[in-house]
Amino acid sequence: LNMQLVEAQKLMFQYKKRSKLASQIFDINKLAKYYALIDITQAYHGFAWHNQRFYYNSTTCLLEPIAFDGYTEDGVYQRIDEPLTGLLNPQKLATLSPEELMLFQVFTNKKFNLKYIEYLQKYSSQTFIDNTKKHYQNKIDSLSTIIREEFSAYQFNFSALDENAQIIRDNLDKTQKNIEELGIVFKTLVNKQEVKDHTNEVN
Fold first, then answer.
1. CA angle at 45 for the pair 171 and 68, rounded to the nearest 5°
2. Whole-number mean pLDDT of the chain?
């Protein structure tokens, strides 16, 4: 187990330092699912570096995302201005902190991009939304009853999920084009930083 911990830590540092390809660090399929689910639920707080959690799969020797602390953000605490991660203005990458920038490394991977769009399409479909509502309705009703014992006016509804799904459906084509640009700009920024770091070392 100690060796697995060491390998997992190594992958995390490589992710943070952007010293290895995303496909060599993560299970790309599961990561694409995670990003798409974050978008459909707007659970962007889970993207904060200190909230990111991963499982090390000792069979594949890759990291798999674990959803954690994924609540929605608003106002000054809003992490992403656009309605989707993949719709971030590529020029904004240059303004991000290293911890924020590394979230967009995945868009340099063609397989991730294809899977991300595939899961956005799946999770925003009306069929998926309706099935999700049906699956969780009884549990939500039960928990809502408990919450109302302290907050009598509390009411849960799925309107946010419906609205997010519609936004995703309306912007799929735009998102597909934008993530390609995000990948290009990310590579350019990293290359510039590597040149700068090398220059500083020489000097």
1. 110
2. 90
The model carries a pTM of 0.89
Lowest mean pLDDT among 105-114, 138-147, 151-160: 151-160
Contacts of 25 (CB under 8 A, 6+ apart): 11, 14, 15, 62, 63
> How far is it, in rounded angstroms, from Cα 97 to Cα 100?
5
Residue 59: helix, strand or coil by DSSP?
coil
- 162 Cβ contact partners less than 8 Å away, ≥ 6 residues apart: 129
End-to-end CA, the chain: 43
Q: Report the 10 Å Cβ neighbour count for 23.
A: 16
Residue with tokens 């200190």: 50
Q: Is residue 155 classed as helix, strand or coil in its secondary structure?
A: coil
Burial 171-201 (b: 16+ CB within 10 A, else e): beeebbebbbebbebbeebeeeeeeeeeeee
